[in-house]
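Lab meeting, item 3. Inverse folding demo.
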């Protein structure tokens, strides 16, 4: 079973951070700041977990995280 994939990005229209499921334009969660989003990602993804691609304001990829960490398919540091 594969993990759900999400992207955390800044919405230029609202200036909020949006967590979106892959292939969906609908936000699963929105946050006022990126710091708030990073603190609440685990809960926002939900108990089934998922992979989150975190983007910078300029939309380049900053990092990717897997929740829960035990479901990370890679055995690499980081």
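The presenter then showed the designed sequence:
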């Amino acid at each position: 079973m594969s993990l759900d994939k999400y992207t955390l990005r800044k919405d230029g229209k609202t200036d909020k951070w949006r967590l979106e499921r892959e292939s969906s334009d609908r936000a699963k969660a929105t946050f006022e700041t990126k710091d708030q989003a990073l603190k609440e990602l685990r809960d926002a993804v939900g108990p089934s977990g998922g992979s989150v691609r975190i983007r910078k304001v300029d939309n380049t990829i900053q990092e990717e995280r897997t929740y829960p960490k035990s479901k990370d398919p890679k055995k690499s540091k980081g």
